[in-house]
Amino acid sequence: MTSPHDKTAPVVDAAHGLGERPSVPAARTGQPLPLPLPLPQPQPTAPPELDYNGRKHRRAMDNASLAEMARRIPRALAQTARLAWSVDRRMAITILVCQLLSGLGTAVMLTAVAEALPLLTTHDPRAGLAQAWPALAVAVVALAAGSGTWILADWATRRLNPKIASTADLALVDLHMRAELSAYDTPGFTDRSQAAEIGAMRAVDLADDAKTLTNGFVQLVSAATVLTSLHPLLLGVLLLSVVPRGLGGVVAARIDYRVHDRTISARNVRGMMRWWLTTAELADELRANTMRGYLHFWYRTMCDRVEGRELEGARPYLWVTLLAASLAGLFTLGMWASLAALVLAGTMTTAIAGTAIVASQTAGRALNSIVRYGAVMFHHGLYLSDYFDFIAEVGSMTASRGSARPRTPKQIRFEAAGFTYAGKDTPALHPVSLTFSRGEVVALVGENGAGKSTLIRMLTGLTLPTEGAVYWDDTDLATADAEAVWQHVGLVPQKNGHWPLAARENITLGQPHSHEDAPVWDAAGRVGMADHLRELPDGLDTLLARSVWGGQELSGGQWQRLACARAMYRRPAVLVLDEPTSEMDARGEHQIFRELHTMAPDRITVVVTHRLDNVRMADRVIVLDQGRIREEGTFDSLVQTEGSLLAELYALAQDR
Ligand SMILES: Nc1ncnc2c1ncn2[C@@H]1O[C@H](COP(=O)(O)OP(=O)(O)OP(=O)(O)O)[C@@H](O)[C@H]1O
């Protein structure tokens, strides 16, 4: 495949040409055109500037003053500490203790150096060394202990990081799976979900960054305390030397992150497109419909956009870091000059001045960590707050309705039950009153958008009606425990999962699975898949995912058969199939409908289908039209009724 960065790749396909060479950003101009230009045609439009969920944070970063950062960073640290505490208290305590010990180590080391230096600066170095060695030994031990505690803290962080990351991720995934379906319909849900996902992904570095940042503070405080105790003036001198470095670091970090945020939407969209361009699923369509030229141009434009913005950031970054380093150099020079002046004036000994220089080096390193990791934590904090906001939002939208646990229903009743999707003015289903009885096979028919899927979501308790009520026998689904309702449901949805699991799990998924394979083979046999599954390299153990090494792929129709097998394996009291045979061959379709009939006596069966020949086998047909029940009766009676919608649709189907 041609890499998006392959400079020799043709810009468009000449054979069918997109026309002129697409306009590409300046970063790529000047390349030789590899193919002759065909006649001018309209240029392909460049991908639009999409603003992703980064927008919110870009504004936050733009507005980030020192005060704002100082306000947010402690919150991010507190959130990190809360997460760490919740996943592994021992490791959290280990890190805390190590931080304090490492600060203590620095203080002891600096004090010992201050003690040793005057002894070493006598006229007789040998005698000085003999006197100074205990203090020097203390300094070395303190230094070693400081390093030891740092290594221990590092180990504890490494144990904590993956736990924090997987806990955050699990919480998010679990919430998605437990949320009411209506949560997905709230405006901006996907954006917020993605921002929260970024928060969960960043959680992997949280403990590490928080540790480095807090260690910076501890070191700085230790150095400052020792310096103040040596000479009160030294604290001011230290601040003079570190403040310009700190300010420069903050400005540089802001430039860095602004560049990062300005490219976030392009990188996100490019990442998504990359999947589309490289997946086998779309490889046929991409080639046969000669989409490569435009898609290549599109992808390259995105690469250029990212590249261009990153290059734009390089120059200001250089100037700011140069300025900060020069100022820091000047102030350090100033600090040395002040120390020299103090020594010359006799208000400070040379030894203390030497200690001040050592301490200022320690403080400088600590400040670098604070600035660097402060900016990182600030940025983490933005996404972390998205994560916690999303958890709170979706947590309040989980399917916790009531405690009633309905038994296998003999009847399902719609009592003036209707449904309007959030943000819509017209109901997808106007209030209807209907009854579905055990032993009956009901077919739902209607044109696209008539409300069939909405009706079956209400029937199975996936969504609650926004008007009226749905009863399973005497239980109003609004008062029932959703999981208890779904235990009686077997659903073949329009879009079913091609689960990257073994064939066996693809059939037993969601069921308490016995060690027996007989029921699995029985379900596979009912949908005509038993022979095919037997021929797979590892039978029921075969992984059904071509993208995974050793995995096998099924055809579209075979996947649908497997989804039907999954629903039949459950032997549910309420069996609902939404266009279960749209991709199946005639034999598969016939077999599924024959099985539905065989299984019908023990359950309520509802089938949505556009294949009207199959509707014959239903005991009752409900025809929906624009969210209303238009007709109801047996297939034969409806087809023979003058002006019936079913008769019209059936005639159209025959006329193909
Ligand atoms: N999640 C949703 N949010 C908003 N509107 C929706 C949603 N799902 C469906 N609708 C709208 O509700 C109406 C009924 O949709 P529904 O999916 O129930 O139709 P359908 O009869 O199953 O159609 P099809 O035969 O195409 O599957 C349509 O106008 C559709 O646009």
TrEMBL record:
Nucleotide-binding is among the record's keywords: yes
Recorded superkingdom: Bacteria
Keywords: ATP-binding, Nucleotide-binding
Protein's name according to its UniProt entry: ABC transporter ATP-binding protein
Species: Streptomyces pratisoli
Taxon lineage: Bacteria, Bacillati, Actinomycetota, Actinomycetes, Kitasatosporales
